[in-house]
């Protein structure tokens, strides 16, 4: 939600009859985001020039919010600022009481399972990037959405690392009170994963003592992996104990333990520390393949797994690096990283592949006939097969293929003769058509190397294939073969139609989601682990630069869903669907990885930069950390910025460190502060639910607030290519798309209203609330395409007053004249109206467009709801935070359990949120029957969560449920603490009357 500067420190008192019709104003100084430094040497970057060069709309938003970065790598800088624009465009204002969420796609999607197109699988990235914004409500609202709000029921729809990211966010913000208040909700989320937990799993026929979490690949956000394609259900099958979900749960347990210790709850701290230790041990003992030096999945007993049940996979997938993103593995497992930079495994020119290109099939593990097994220090896995010297000698490998085709197979061998030797390769017992495999001489027996290899093309059928290497001419020894028919199988479309119908296969493409995870893990390995020889700082810098290079299209910064790692072409890139795909990280990788800013729980700032040794400079300014603002600058000899040499760190404009080197650094910093924020505002015009129901062709269940216009463009302005659907012409210009919560200025995808083609001299865009609402600010964001849709020549804000449209009095405009592709804000004294509109006068011969229309009003504070009959306060039994917690009257206290937030909702009704749980007041089973009990529930948008507050005189009101029409009361008119709250016919009894007061209980509340 946005902020407005406060006007008074006085609580405005009024009776319940005027409740929800006047405002409560609070005070507080404005947020201190990105202020000018006191020391002129603290500022070296021209922020206006940077924003102009990157062509970022609404530049003030970036100046108020983001850390500014400057490096010698222009690609990294360009993508850094581009990715802040993708972050901004994915911020979606939902409804009062919920605020902002972050979305992955630029359009609504039908499979989200949560309101407002929110998905949990990439929420960790959104929180990690969002922690670096000065306005912490963007990430804070989204965290609350999953922990307490409307997203809570769907927080488990995909694997998630929300808890770990929440703790990492705390390390950056320093807001201990916030993270401690979230502890019960984080524990509740952790416990919801219990249904995916298995004790003493069996691995390759041996029962272990490992207790691990299982997940399907598709619920791990990775459909069509080799793991699932080996099962009977390529899309949804292949469930097992995966390195990803277990690393997430390990990090969640660690975070909960640390937060519990902060609260003084040593028992919970120990309990979850033990859970983390057990998970770490189980991952290392059961998911680590000692032969392949990698973390693998173990299949569980799901019916789709067939004979694979309780076996460990034998192929490396990029997800095997996920444990390092959370610092899970011990140092001895670092050998896995050698495969990342191996072009035969994961390395590709534009980013690592999601599956290794080839798998190893060891000769000693193949079926041997009349051939012998030997040891050699140069052989893969230490052994090889030799003396394949007789007519009945052979070595048979079994290689699975997803479909019929010809696949490359590479054979690693030794040929100690002086001439070429051969084997006959018989595929699937086709003895009539053997393939001749020829081996050039290698100079010695029993010695093997990567160069001693030959590749042959082998026809295979779908399923298991036998590859029998039989005696040919002369002699050869076999070390291993490598092949992977699954690599990129059906993954890359022959022709890119931009309809996204081919998406998504994670059996080879380069996927920003996992690339981000790998880079996080590599940074942790380099910054937090003992030195190792597998990857270096240079590898990190090169891979991040490679990632930046990938994020381009047509010469401009761009990101879609996935790319061909060899060509850099975006292969999952549906028009008006997957552009600017917000499903990965980049900015946190720059700040914490490349520049090495490692947030801490104590009063220190730690730098462990991974910059290339050739870099003589870099700078980051306006960096929020622990409630302060920092500038960090490296200028080796002082000539680049002209502000002093070496490494300098400024805190709130004052230099606190200067060093001649840019190596690992720890500096003491000021204690965390929580900047006092001005009064929070709520956008009462937003209606994202209706917009997505319309987009997805569903029935409209929330007609108000309803956007309307005098004229709307009716001509199709582009295709709509939703995932898995054919493209079809779609008219995007619609009033409701100007109140869907998204602010975007680009042409693709379209998210706006325009009056293109209108014959009118003026046109208007407005909102019908469906009931009287208070507003004191209107804000609209112009859409200007530079040709036919242009910023208006003028405009006026009007409201409906007794059936007539009149200009809002005393309008104050910022800026004074309309601006293109930017916010236009109008403030005025509070009015009460059921409708408002903005009347636009276009430029001569042009039309006007609006990407978002908002009406703001100060958010209502927490209140107590006191029963007249008993004088007891409404609360939730046991201070429960769980859905279904019973509402009851309780003895007065000062806990959040007795605090409620009453916020405007659709159709003139209100939602009543419990401050402790974040859940809404509703009726059990959405019953319409008198006597049905009241309870709290996740905000799943049902009508029993909507209430009207009706003045009953004398400072009391009735709270009436929309769904049933019945009033909130107390069972049997009881005056006892603990008596249940329920709905009943309005029979005039005193228990149906409630007093709504401010937190201290002394004054009636006003909204």
Can you walk me through this structure?
With 1007 residues, the protein is an alpha+beta fold. Among the domains are: 177-315, no CATH class; 359-483, Sandwich (Jelly Rolls); 681-857, Galactose-binding domain-like (Jelly Rolls, Sandwich), CATH 2.60.120.260; 863-998, Trefoil (Acidic Fibroblast Growth Factor, subunit A) (Trefoil). Helix content is 17%, strand content 28%. It is built from 15 helices and 56 strands. The strands form 19 sheets. Strands 34, 35, 38, 39, 40, 41, 42, 43 and 44 form a nine-stranded antiparallel β-sheet that branches. A five-stranded antiparallel β-sheet has the order 1-29-30-31-32. Strands 13-16-21-18-19 form a five-stranded antiparallel β-sheet, with no helix packed on it. Strand 9 and strand 10 form a beta hairpin. Helix 4 runs antiparallel to helix 5 (137-147) and helix 12 (512-528) packs parallel to helix 14. It is globular, with a radius of gyration of 32 Å. 53% of the residues are buried. Mean pLDDT is 92; it is low at 1-15 and 17-37.
């Amino acid at each position: 939600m946005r902020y407005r500067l406060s006007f008074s420190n006085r609580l405005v008192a009024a009776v319940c009859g005027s409740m929800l019709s006047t405002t409560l104003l609070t005070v507080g100084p404005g947020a201190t985001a990105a202020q000018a430094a006191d020391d002129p040497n603290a500022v070296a970057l021209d922020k206006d020039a940077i924003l102009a060069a990157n062509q970022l709309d609404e530049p003030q938003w970036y100046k108020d919010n983001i850390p500014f970065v400057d490096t010698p790598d222009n690609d990294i800088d360009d993508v850094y600022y581009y990715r802040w624009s993708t972050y901004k465009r994915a911020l979606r204002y939902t409804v009062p009481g919920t605020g902002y969420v972050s979305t992955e796609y630029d359009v609504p999607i039908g499979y989200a399972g949560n309101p407002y197109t929110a998905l949990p699988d990439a929420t960790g990235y959104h929180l990690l990037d969002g922690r670096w914004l000065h306005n912490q409500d963007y990430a804070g609202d989204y965290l609350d959405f999953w922990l307490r709000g409307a997203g809570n029921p769907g927080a488990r729809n995909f694997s998630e690392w929300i808890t770990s990211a929440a703790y990492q966010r705390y390390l950056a913000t320093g807001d201990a009170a916030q993270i401690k208040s979230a502890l019960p909700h984080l524990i509740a989320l952790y416990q919801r994963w219990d249904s995916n937990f298995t004790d003493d799993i069996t691995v390759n026929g041996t029962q272990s003592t490992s207790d691990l979490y299982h997940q399907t690949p598709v619920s791990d956000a990775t459909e069509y992996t080799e793991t699932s394609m080996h099962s009977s259900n390529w899309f949804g099958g292949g469930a097992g104990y995966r390195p990803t979900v277990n690393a997430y749960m390990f990090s969640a347990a660690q975070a909960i333990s640390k937060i519990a210790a902060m609260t003084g709850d040593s028992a919970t701290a120990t309990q979850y520390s033990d859970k983390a230790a057990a998970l770490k041990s189980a991952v290392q003992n059961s998911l680590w393949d000692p032969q392949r030096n990698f973390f693998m999945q173990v299949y569980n007993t799901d019916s789709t797994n067939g004979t694979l049940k309780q076996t460990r996979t034998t192929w490396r997938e990029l997800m095997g690096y996920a444990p390092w993103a959370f610092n899970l593995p011990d140092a001895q497992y670092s050998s896995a990283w050698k495969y990342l930079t191996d072009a035969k495994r994961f390395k590709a020119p534009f980013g690592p592949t999601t599956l290794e290109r080839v798998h190893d099939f060891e000769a000693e593990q193949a079926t041997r006939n009349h051939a012998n097994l030997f040891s050699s220090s140069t052989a893969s896995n230490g052994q090889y097969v030799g003396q394949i010297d007789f007519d009945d000698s052979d070595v048979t490998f079994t290689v699975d293929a997803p479909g019929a085709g010809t696949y490359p197979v590479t054979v690693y061998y030794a040929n100690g003769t002086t001439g070429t030797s051969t084997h006959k390769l018989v595929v699937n017992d086709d003895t009539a058509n053997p393939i001749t495999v020829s081996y050039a001489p290698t100079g010695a027996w029993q010695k093997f190397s990567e160069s001693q290899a030959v590749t042959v093309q082998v026809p295979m059928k779908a399923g298991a294939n036998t590859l029998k290497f039989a005696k040919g001419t002369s002699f050869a020894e076999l070390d291993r073969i490598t092949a992977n028919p699954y690599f990129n199988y059906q993954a890359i479309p022959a022709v890119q139609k931009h309809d996204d119908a081919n998406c998504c296969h994670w059996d080879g493409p380069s996927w920003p989601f996992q690339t981000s995870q790998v880079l996080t893990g590599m940074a942790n390995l380099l910054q937090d682990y003992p030195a190792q020889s597998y990857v270096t700082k240079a590898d990190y810098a090169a891979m991040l630069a490679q990632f930046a290079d990938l994020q381009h299209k047509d010469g401009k910064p761009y990101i879609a869903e996935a790319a061909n790692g060899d060509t850099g072409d975006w292969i999952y890139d549906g028009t008006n669907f997957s552009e600017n795909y917000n499903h990965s990280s980049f900015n946190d990788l720059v700040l914490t990885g490349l520049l090495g800013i490692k947030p801490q729980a104590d009063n220190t700032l730690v730098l462990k930069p991974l910059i290339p040794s050739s870099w003589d400079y870099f700078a980051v300014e306006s960096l929020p950390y622990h409630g302060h603002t920092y500038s960090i600058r490296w200028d080796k000899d002082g000539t680049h910025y002209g502000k002093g040499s070496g490494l300098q760190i400024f805190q709130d404009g004052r230099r606190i460190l200067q060093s001649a080197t840019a190596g690992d650094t720890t500096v003491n910093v000021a204690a965390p502060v929580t900047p006092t924020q001005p009064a929070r505002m709520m956008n009462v015009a937003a209606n994202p639910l209706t917009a997505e129901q319309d987009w997805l062709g569903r029935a409209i269940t929330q007609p108000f607030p309803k956007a309307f216009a005098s004229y709307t463009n009716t001509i199709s302005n582009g295709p709509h290519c939703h995932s898995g659907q054919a493209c079809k012409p779609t008219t995007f210009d619609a009033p409701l798309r100007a109140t869907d919560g998204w602010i975007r200025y680009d042409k693709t995808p379209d998210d706006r209203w325009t009056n293109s083609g209108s014959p009118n001299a003026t046109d208007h865009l407005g909102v019908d609330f469906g009931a009287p609402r208070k507003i004191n600010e209107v804000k609209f964001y112009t859409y200007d395409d530079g040709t036919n849709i242009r910023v208006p020549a003028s405009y006026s804000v009007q409201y409906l007053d007794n059936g007539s449209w009149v200009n809002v009095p005393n309008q104050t405009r910022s800026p004074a004249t309309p601006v293109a592709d930017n916010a236009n804000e109008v403030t005025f004294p509070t009015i009460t109206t059921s409708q408002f509109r903005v009347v636009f006068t276009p430029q001569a011969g042009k039309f006007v467009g609006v990407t978002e229309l908002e009406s703001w009003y100060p958010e209502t504070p927490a209140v107590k709801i006191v029963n007249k009959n008993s004088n007891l306060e409404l609360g939730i039994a046991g201070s429960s935070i769980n859905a279904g917690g019973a509402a009851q009257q309780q003895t007065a206290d000062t806990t959040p359990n007795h605090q409620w937030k009453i916020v405007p909702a659709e159709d003139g009704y209100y939602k009543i949120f419990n401050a402790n749980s974040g859940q809404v007041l509703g009726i059990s089973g959405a019953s319409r029957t008198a006597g049905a009990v009241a309870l709290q529930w996740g905000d799943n948008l049902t009508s029993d969560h909507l209430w009207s507050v009706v003045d009953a005189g004398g400072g009391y009101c009735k709270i009436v449920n929309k769904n049933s029409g019945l009033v909130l009361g107390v069972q049997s008119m009881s005056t006892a603490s603990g008596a249940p709250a329920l709905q009943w016919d309005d029979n005039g009894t005193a228990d149906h009357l409630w007093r709504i007061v401010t937190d201290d209980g002394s004054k009636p509340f006003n909204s």
